[in-house]
Fold this protein.
Amino acid sequence: MPIFTRISRCAWLISSIFIISNTPGAWADKFEQLAMTPPMGWNSWNHFGCNVDEKLIKATADAMAKNGMKAAGYEYVNIDDCWHGERDANGNIQVDAERFPSGMKALADYVHKRGLKLGIYSDAGWTTCAGKPGSRGYEFQDAKTYASWGIDYLKYDWCATDGLKAEGAYQTMSKAIVEAGRPMILSICEWGDNDPWKWAEPLGQLWRTTGDIYACFDCEYDHGTWSSWGVIQILDMQDELRKYAGPGHWNDPDMMEVGNGMTFEEDRAHFSMWAMLAAPLIAGNDLRNMSKETLSILSNDDVIAVDQDALGIQGFKYSEKDGVETWFKPLENGEWAVAMLNRNNHDVKFKFAWRHEKVTDDLTKRSIDFNTEIFNWQDLWDNNNTGTTKEFVKTTIKRHDVLMLKLTPAGEWKR
Ligand code: GLA
Protein backbone atom coordinates (compact mmCIF):
# COMPACT_ATOMS: atom_id res chain seq x y z
CA MET A 1 0.00 0.00 0.00
CA PRO A 2 1.50 3.41 -0.90
CA ILE A 3 2.62 5.32 2.15
CA PHE A 4 0.12 8.16 1.51
CA THR A 5 -2.83 5.76 1.36
CA ARG A 6 -1.62 4.09 4.51
CA ILE A 7 -1.41 7.41 6.34
CA SER A 8 -4.83 8.54 5.17
CA ARG A 9 -6.43 5.19 6.10
CA CYS A 10 -4.87 5.46 9.49
CA ALA A 11 -6.18 9.05 9.85
CA TRP A 12 -9.63 7.87 8.78
CA LEU A 13 -9.59 5.09 11.35
CA ILE A 14 -8.50 7.40 14.15
CA SER A 15 -11.08 10.03 13.24
CA SER A 16 -13.83 7.40 13.00
CA ILE A 17 -13.03 6.13 16.46
CA PHE A 18 -12.98 9.72 17.68
CA ILE A 19 -16.37 10.52 16.13
CA ILE A 20 -18.01 7.36 17.45
CA SER A 21 -16.64 7.75 20.93
CA ASN A 22 -17.73 11.38 21.04
CA THR A 23 -21.25 10.90 19.79
CA PRO A 24 -23.62 10.15 22.66
CA GLY A 25 -25.21 6.79 21.87
CA ALA A 26 -23.78 7.18 18.32
CA TRP A 27 -27.08 8.79 17.26
CA ALA A 28 -26.59 11.95 15.27
CA ASP A 29 -29.26 11.70 12.70
CA LYS A 30 -31.97 14.21 13.56
CA PHE A 31 -33.45 16.19 10.70
CA GLU A 32 -30.79 18.73 9.81
CA GLN A 33 -31.51 22.26 8.59
CA LEU A 34 -34.41 22.69 11.02
CA ALA A 35 -34.42 25.72 13.34
CA MET A 36 -31.27 27.25 11.90
CA THR A 37 -32.41 30.36 13.78
CA PRO A 38 -34.33 30.09 17.06
CA PRO A 39 -37.89 28.82 16.43
CA MET A 40 -40.66 31.45 16.62
CA GLY A 41 -44.30 30.80 17.34
CA TRP A 42 -46.93 30.49 20.04
CA ASN A 43 -47.82 27.86 22.66
CA SER A 44 -51.09 27.46 24.55
CA TRP A 45 -49.76 26.56 28.03
CA ASN A 46 -48.74 29.85 29.66
CA HIS A 47 -52.12 31.49 29.17
CA PHE A 48 -54.63 28.70 28.65
CA GLY A 49 -53.21 25.72 30.59
CA CYS A 50 -55.46 22.74 29.89
CA ASN A 51 -58.20 24.81 28.22
CA VAL A 52 -57.33 23.99 24.63
CA ASP A 53 -59.67 23.16 21.76
CA GLU A 54 -59.70 23.47 17.99
CA LYS A 55 -61.62 26.76 18.10
CA LEU A 56 -58.83 28.38 20.09
CA ILE A 57 -56.09 26.96 17.87
CA LYS A 58 -57.82 28.09 14.67
CA ALA A 59 -58.48 31.58 16.01
CA THR A 60 -54.88 31.81 17.17
CA ALA A 61 -53.59 30.80 13.73
CA ASP A 62 -55.92 33.35 12.13
CA ALA A 63 -54.68 36.07 14.47
CA MET A 64 -51.02 35.21 13.88
CA ALA A 65 -51.50 35.19 10.10
CA LYS A 66 -53.23 38.56 10.07
CA ASN A 67 -51.86 40.70 12.90
CA GLY A 68 -48.31 41.08 11.60
CA MET A 69 -46.76 38.30 13.69
CA LYS A 70 -46.44 35.90 10.77
CA ALA A 71 -44.83 38.67 8.74
CA ALA A 72 -42.44 39.26 11.65
CA GLY A 73 -41.34 35.60 11.53
CA TYR A 74 -43.67 33.68 13.88
CA GLU A 75 -44.45 30.32 12.37
CA TYR A 76 -45.38 27.57 14.85
CA VAL A 77 -48.81 27.29 16.50
CA ASN A 78 -48.20 24.81 19.30
CA ILE A 79 -50.81 22.95 21.32
CA ASP A 80 -49.45 22.04 24.74
CA ASP A 81 -50.85 19.53 27.21
CA CYS A 82 -54.46 18.26 27.26
CA TRP A 83 -55.36 17.72 23.60
CA HIS A 84 -55.27 13.95 24.18
CA GLY A 85 -58.06 11.43 24.32
CA GLU A 86 -57.45 7.73 25.09
CA ARG A 87 -55.52 5.19 23.04
CA ASP A 88 -57.68 3.00 20.78
CA ALA A 89 -57.66 -0.81 20.83
CA ASN A 90 -54.51 -0.80 18.65
CA GLY A 91 -52.70 1.62 20.91
CA ASN A 92 -53.11 4.60 18.59
CA ILE A 93 -53.36 7.89 20.44
CA GLN A 94 -56.56 9.80 19.74
CA VAL A 95 -57.54 13.41 20.24
CA ASP A 96 -60.09 14.46 22.83
CA ALA A 97 -63.06 14.31 20.49
CA GLU A 98 -65.04 16.92 22.38
CA ARG A 99 -62.29 19.49 22.21
CA PHE A 100 -61.07 18.58 18.73
CA PRO A 101 -64.16 17.25 16.91
CA SER A 102 -62.64 17.74 13.43
CA GLY A 103 -59.50 15.81 14.35
CA MET A 104 -55.86 16.83 14.31
CA LYS A 105 -55.28 16.30 10.58
CA ALA A 106 -58.01 18.80 9.69
CA LEU A 107 -56.55 21.25 12.18
CA ALA A 108 -53.06 20.88 10.71
CA ASP A 109 -54.51 21.49 7.23
CA TYR A 110 -56.20 24.64 8.54
CA VAL A 111 -52.98 25.96 10.05
CA HIS A 112 -50.90 25.01 6.98
CA LYS A 113 -53.33 26.84 4.68
CA ARG A 114 -52.41 30.01 6.53
CA GLY A 115 -48.73 29.44 5.85
CA LEU A 116 -48.07 28.36 9.43
CA LYS A 117 -47.03 25.12 11.13
CA LEU A 118 -48.67 23.03 13.83
CA GLY A 119 -46.99 21.78 16.99
CA ILE A 120 -48.14 19.24 19.51
CA TYR A 121 -47.09 18.02 22.96
CA SER A 122 -46.34 14.67 24.53
CA ASP A 123 -44.29 13.23 27.37
CA ALA A 124 -41.50 10.67 27.63
CA GLY A 125 -43.19 9.08 30.64
CA TRP A 126 -46.33 7.09 31.24
CA THR A 127 -48.47 10.21 31.56
CA THR A 128 -48.12 13.86 30.68
CA CYS A 129 -47.80 16.44 33.46
CA ALA A 130 -51.58 16.89 33.36
CA GLY A 131 -52.17 13.12 33.58
CA LYS A 132 -52.95 12.43 29.90
CA PRO A 133 -51.44 9.40 28.14
CA GLY A 134 -47.68 9.73 27.72
CA SER A 135 -45.63 8.21 24.90
CA ARG A 136 -43.63 5.71 26.99
CA GLY A 137 -43.65 2.43 25.04
CA TYR A 138 -45.50 4.04 22.12
CA GLU A 139 -42.78 6.36 20.83
CA PHE A 140 -42.53 5.00 17.27
CA GLN A 141 -46.29 4.60 16.95
CA ASP A 142 -46.97 8.12 18.24
CA ALA A 143 -44.35 9.73 15.99
CA LYS A 144 -45.97 8.00 13.01
CA THR A 145 -49.39 9.23 14.08
CA TYR A 146 -48.12 12.79 14.46
CA ALA A 147 -46.47 12.59 11.02
CA SER A 148 -49.70 11.30 9.47
CA TRP A 149 -51.55 14.26 11.01
CA GLY A 150 -49.03 16.72 9.50
CA ILE A 151 -47.44 17.82 12.76
CA ASP A 152 -44.31 19.97 12.45
CA TYR A 153 -43.10 20.37 16.04
CA LEU A 154 -43.16 18.12 19.10
CA LYS A 155 -42.63 19.42 22.62
CA TYR A 156 -41.67 16.38 24.67
CA ASP A 157 -42.06 16.67 28.44
CA TRP A 158 -40.58 14.76 31.38
CA CYS A 159 -43.34 13.97 33.89
CA ALA A 160 -43.96 10.40 35.18
CA THR A 161 -40.54 9.19 34.06
CA ASP A 162 -39.30 7.49 37.26
CA GLY A 163 -36.45 5.14 36.46
CA LEU A 164 -35.92 6.46 32.91
CA LYS A 165 -32.67 7.97 31.70
CA ALA A 166 -33.29 11.29 29.99
CA GLU A 167 -30.72 10.99 27.21
CA GLY A 168 -31.98 7.53 26.21
CA ALA A 169 -35.63 8.54 26.37
CA TYR A 170 -35.09 11.57 24.15
CA GLN A 171 -32.92 9.55 21.82
CA THR A 172 -35.78 7.11 21.35
CA MET A 173 -38.20 9.87 20.35
CA SER A 174 -35.59 11.49 18.11
CA LYS A 175 -35.18 8.19 16.28
CA ALA A 176 -38.94 7.71 16.12
CA ILE A 177 -39.37 11.11 14.46
CA VAL A 178 -36.70 10.37 11.88
CA GLU A 179 -38.22 6.97 11.18
CA ALA A 180 -41.68 8.53 10.80
CA GLY A 181 -40.10 10.57 8.00
CA ARG A 182 -41.70 13.99 8.47
CA PRO A 183 -39.34 16.83 9.45
CA MET A 184 -40.44 17.79 12.95
CA ILE A 185 -38.72 19.97 15.50
CA LEU A 186 -38.07 18.10 18.75
CA SER A 187 -38.36 20.44 21.72
CA ILE A 188 -36.75 18.72 24.70
CA CYS A 189 -38.46 19.66 27.95
CA GLU A 190 -36.79 18.03 30.96
CA TRP A 191 -36.32 21.42 32.68
CA GLY A 192 -32.53 21.29 32.56
CA ASP A 193 -32.49 18.58 35.24
CA ASN A 194 -30.06 16.29 33.40
CA ASP A 195 -27.79 18.91 31.77
CA PRO A 196 -29.38 18.42 28.33
CA TRP A 197 -27.01 20.99 26.82
CA LYS A 198 -24.30 18.32 27.15
CA TRP A 199 -26.12 15.61 25.15
CA ALA A 200 -29.17 16.97 23.34
CA GLU A 201 -27.60 18.62 20.29
CA PRO A 202 -27.73 15.46 18.13
CA LEU A 203 -31.28 14.68 19.28
CA GLY A 204 -33.38 17.82 19.07
CA GLN A 205 -33.47 21.46 18.08
CA LEU A 206 -34.00 23.03 21.52
CA TRP A 207 -33.88 22.04 25.17
CA ARG A 208 -35.38 23.70 28.20
CA THR A 209 -32.71 24.96 30.57
CA THR A 210 -34.94 25.58 33.61
CA GLY A 211 -38.21 24.81 35.38
CA ASP A 212 -41.37 26.60 34.32
CA ILE A 213 -41.59 30.34 33.87
CA TYR A 214 -44.52 32.37 35.20
CA ALA A 215 -45.66 35.92 34.56
CA CYS A 216 -43.63 37.72 37.21
CA PHE A 217 -40.45 39.69 36.68
CA ASP A 218 -38.39 38.98 39.78
CA CYS A 219 -40.03 36.18 41.76
CA GLU A 220 -40.01 32.54 42.74
CA TYR A 221 -43.27 30.66 43.21
CA ASP A 222 -42.63 27.74 45.54
CA HIS A 223 -45.01 24.85 44.86
CA GLY A 224 -43.42 22.68 47.56
CA THR A 225 -41.40 20.14 45.58
CA TRP A 226 -40.72 22.50 42.67
CA SER A 227 -40.80 26.19 41.81
CA SER A 228 -41.88 28.35 38.92
CA TRP A 229 -39.54 31.17 38.11
CA GLY A 230 -39.66 34.84 37.17
CA VAL A 231 -37.88 36.36 34.19
CA ILE A 232 -34.86 37.49 36.23
CA GLN A 233 -34.45 34.13 37.94
CA ILE A 234 -34.51 32.34 34.58
CA LEU A 235 -32.08 34.82 33.10
CA ASP A 236 -29.63 34.15 35.94
CA MET A 237 -29.82 30.40 35.27
CA GLN A 238 -28.47 30.84 31.71
CA ASP A 239 -24.94 31.59 32.88
CA GLU A 240 -22.31 29.28 31.36
CA LEU A 241 -24.72 27.80 28.79
CA ARG A 242 -24.02 29.96 25.76
CA LYS A 243 -21.28 27.74 24.40
CA TYR A 244 -23.80 24.94 23.85
CA ALA A 245 -26.19 26.90 21.58
CA GLY A 246 -26.03 27.58 17.87
CA PRO A 247 -27.89 27.07 14.58
CA GLY A 248 -30.12 24.00 14.87
CA HIS A 249 -29.61 23.54 18.64
CA TRP A 250 -30.79 26.16 21.10
CA ASN A 251 -30.96 26.72 24.83
CA ASP A 252 -34.64 27.27 25.69
CA PRO A 253 -35.25 29.49 28.74
CA ASP A 254 -38.98 28.70 28.34
CA MET A 255 -41.90 30.23 26.48
CA MET A 256 -42.62 33.90 26.88
CA GLU A 257 -44.99 35.61 29.29
CA VAL A 258 -45.26 38.85 27.28
CA GLY A 259 -48.88 40.07 27.53
CA ASN A 260 -49.72 37.87 30.51
CA GLY A 261 -49.82 40.50 33.24
CA MET A 262 -46.42 42.11 33.72
CA THR A 263 -45.92 45.84 33.09
CA PHE A 264 -45.10 47.16 29.62
CA GLU A 265 -41.49 47.76 30.66
CA GLU A 266 -41.15 44.28 32.18
CA ASP A 267 -42.60 42.72 29.06
CA ARG A 268 -40.21 44.49 26.75
CA ALA A 269 -37.25 43.79 29.03
CA HIS A 270 -38.24 40.09 29.00
CA PHE A 271 -38.56 40.11 25.19
CA SER A 272 -35.26 41.97 24.75
CA MET A 273 -33.35 39.59 27.02
CA TRP A 274 -34.78 36.53 25.28
CA ALA A 275 -33.51 38.05 22.01
CA MET A 276 -30.09 38.64 23.59
CA LEU A 277 -30.07 34.95 24.59
CA ALA A 278 -30.92 33.82 21.03
CA ALA A 279 -33.85 32.08 22.72
CA PRO A 280 -36.79 30.50 20.93
CA LEU A 281 -39.46 33.24 20.73
CA ILE A 282 -42.61 31.33 21.62
CA ALA A 283 -45.39 33.73 22.60
CA GLY A 284 -47.57 32.52 25.47
CA ASN A 285 -50.40 35.04 25.59
CA ASP A 286 -53.88 35.24 24.07
CA LEU A 287 -53.20 36.34 20.50
CA ARG A 288 -56.92 36.85 19.83
CA ASN A 289 -57.22 39.62 22.41
CA MET A 290 -54.05 41.52 23.06
CA SER A 291 -53.29 45.19 23.51
CA LYS A 292 -51.52 47.23 20.86
CA GLU A 293 -48.61 47.56 23.29
CA THR A 294 -48.24 43.80 23.62
CA LEU A 295 -48.36 43.33 19.86
CA SER A 296 -45.82 46.13 19.40
CA ILE A 297 -43.43 44.25 21.68
CA LEU A 298 -43.92 40.83 20.09
CA SER A 299 -43.54 42.23 16.59
CA ASN A 300 -40.59 44.59 17.07
CA ASP A 301 -38.64 43.66 13.94
CA ASP A 302 -35.36 45.13 15.15
CA VAL A 303 -35.36 43.12 18.36
CA ILE A 304 -36.46 40.00 16.50
CA ALA A 305 -33.55 40.51 14.09
CA VAL A 306 -31.16 40.36 17.06
CA ASP A 307 -32.68 37.06 18.14
CA GLN A 308 -32.70 35.69 14.60
CA ASP A 309 -29.19 36.81 13.62
CA ALA A 310 -27.74 34.16 11.32
CA LEU A 311 -24.61 33.62 13.41
CA GLY A 312 -26.81 32.24 16.21
CA ILE A 313 -24.48 33.39 18.99
CA GLN A 314 -26.05 33.64 22.42
CA GLY A 315 -25.27 36.95 24.16
CA PHE A 316 -23.33 37.32 27.42
CA LYS A 317 -23.38 39.50 30.51
CA TYR A 318 -20.50 41.94 30.23
CA SER A 319 -20.86 44.06 33.38
CA GLU A 320 -23.06 45.00 36.29
CA LYS A 321 -23.22 48.37 37.99
CA ASP A 322 -25.81 49.67 40.46
CA GLY A 323 -28.22 46.89 39.57
CA VAL A 324 -27.96 47.53 35.82
CA GLU A 325 -26.55 44.68 33.76
CA THR A 326 -24.98 45.32 30.37
CA TRP A 327 -25.14 42.44 27.91
CA PHE A 328 -23.46 42.10 24.50
CA LYS A 329 -24.37 39.82 21.60
CA PRO A 330 -22.15 39.55 18.51
CA LEU A 331 -24.08 39.85 15.25
CA GLU A 332 -23.32 39.41 11.57
CA ASN A 333 -21.30 42.02 9.64
CA GLY A 334 -19.34 43.20 12.66
CA GLU A 335 -22.48 44.51 14.37
CA TRP A 336 -23.37 44.00 18.05
CA ALA A 337 -26.53 44.15 20.11
CA VAL A 338 -26.27 45.69 23.58
CA ALA A 339 -28.90 45.53 26.32
CA MET A 340 -28.76 47.50 29.55
CA LEU A 341 -31.18 45.88 31.97
CA ASN A 342 -32.36 47.69 35.09
CA ARG A 343 -33.06 44.93 37.64
CA ASN A 344 -33.82 47.45 40.40
CA ASN A 345 -37.24 48.16 41.79
CA HIS A 346 -36.66 51.83 41.02
CA ASP A 347 -35.66 53.98 38.03
CA VAL A 348 -31.91 54.47 37.60
CA LYS A 349 -29.85 57.27 36.07
CA PHE A 350 -27.43 55.36 33.90
CA LYS A 351 -24.21 56.36 32.18
CA PHE A 352 -22.13 54.15 29.92
CA ALA A 353 -18.75 55.54 28.88
CA TRP A 354 -17.95 53.41 25.85
CA ARG A 355 -14.32 54.48 25.69
CA HIS A 356 -13.65 53.21 29.20
CA GLU A 357 -14.85 49.76 28.23
CA LYS A 358 -13.07 46.93 26.47
CA VAL A 359 -15.38 44.15 25.40
CA THR A 360 -14.02 40.67 24.75
CA ASP A 361 -16.12 37.67 23.91
CA ASP A 362 -14.17 34.63 25.11
CA LEU A 363 -16.32 32.29 23.03
CA THR A 364 -16.03 33.87 19.59
CA LYS A 365 -12.82 35.80 20.33
CA ARG A 366 -14.47 38.90 18.95
CA SER A 367 -13.64 42.06 20.81
CA ILE A 368 -14.25 45.80 20.71
CA ASP A 369 -11.84 48.54 21.62
CA PHE A 370 -13.97 51.67 21.62
CA ASN A 371 -10.79 53.78 21.60
CA THR A 372 -9.86 52.63 18.13
CA GLU A 373 -13.24 51.73 16.61
CA ILE A 374 -16.33 53.91 16.35
CA PHE A 375 -19.88 52.53 16.21
CA ASN A 376 -23.19 54.22 15.51
CA TRP A 377 -25.93 53.06 17.81
CA GLN A 378 -29.66 52.81 17.34
CA ASP A 379 -32.16 52.40 20.19
CA LEU A 380 -34.26 49.39 19.17
CA TRP A 381 -37.29 50.54 21.20
CA ASP A 382 -37.14 54.17 20.05
CA ASN A 383 -36.04 54.74 16.48
CA ASN A 384 -35.51 58.46 17.09
CA ASN A 385 -32.87 57.78 19.69
CA THR A 386 -29.48 57.34 18.02
CA GLY A 387 -25.87 58.20 18.81
CA THR A 388 -22.28 57.13 18.44
CA THR A 389 -19.81 55.49 20.78
CA LYS A 390 -17.75 58.69 20.71
CA GLU A 391 -20.08 60.09 23.37
CA PHE A 392 -21.39 58.62 26.62
CA VAL A 393 -24.83 57.07 26.77
CA LYS A 394 -26.61 59.00 29.52
CA THR A 395 -30.20 58.17 30.24
CA THR A 396 -32.75 57.10 32.82
CA ILE A 397 -33.75 53.45 32.64
CA LYS A 398 -37.06 52.77 34.31
CA ARG A 399 -37.45 50.02 36.91
CA HIS A 400 -37.46 46.56 35.29
CA ASP A 401 -36.88 48.14 31.89
CA VAL A 402 -34.16 47.88 29.31
CA LEU A 403 -32.22 50.10 26.94
CA MET A 404 -31.49 48.01 23.89
CA LEU A 405 -29.10 49.22 21.20
CA LYS A 406 -27.65 47.94 17.97
CA LEU A 407 -24.07 48.96 17.24
CA THR A 408 -22.99 49.33 13.62
CA PRO A 409 -19.31 49.84 12.72
CA ALA A 410 -18.66 53.44 11.65
CA GLY A 411 -14.93 53.54 11.08
CA GLU A 412 -11.78 54.15 13.09
CA TRP A 413 -10.67 56.99 15.29
CA LYS A 414 -8.44 59.38 13.34
CA ARG A 415 -5.49 60.32 15.47
C1 GLA B 1 -44.55 21.04 32.28
C2 GLA B 1 -43.85 21.89 31.24
C3 GLA B 1 -44.73 23.08 30.89
C4 GLA B 1 -46.06 22.57 30.35
C5 GLA B 1 -46.73 21.66 31.38
C6 GLA B 1 -47.97 20.96 30.82
O1 GLA B 1 -44.66 21.71 33.50
O2 GLA B 1 -42.60 22.34 31.71
O3 GLA B 1 -44.11 23.91 29.94
O4 GLA B 1 -45.86 21.89 29.15
O5 GLA B 1 -45.83 20.65 31.83
O6 GLA B 1 -48.57 20.11 31.73
User: Anything to note?
Assistant: The longest helix spans residues 3-22. The pocket of alpha-D-galactopyranose is lined by residues 45, 80-81, 128-130, 157, 189, 212 (CB under 6 Å). The radius of gyration is 23 Å.
